Amino acid sequence: MSAIITASIRVDKLPKEKFIKGKDGAVYYNFTLSVNDETRYGNNVWVTDSQTKEEREAKIQKLSLGNGKVVWTDNSIVIAERENNNNINDNNNNDADLPF
Fold it and tell me: CA-CA distance, 28 to 20, in Å (whole number)?
């Protein structure tokens, strides 16, 4: 039940307004990895900006951040189940403390 994926993203494309400051002071950014069985140019992973429900419903085009490839799998990936609903991040998007 595992896989290893390598990917690269363009950091300059990350919209600062979507950075999330956690309770521990760390800065987080949510992105989505899409895996496709077909490859193009040796990459079968697409890294995009995570969209909100409203962005998906408005059919806003996904922001492409990069790509990658699956380099190892045991051929038995399953959908992850959440153990609890504790959210480690608060939604304070204060950019003043960001290191970049």
Answer: 5
